[in-house]
Amino acid sequence: MIVRCIDKTLQHDTLVVGRKYEVRAERDDCYILSGFDKRFS
Question: At the top level of its lineage, which domain of life is listed (predicted)?
Answer without folding.
Answer: Bacteria
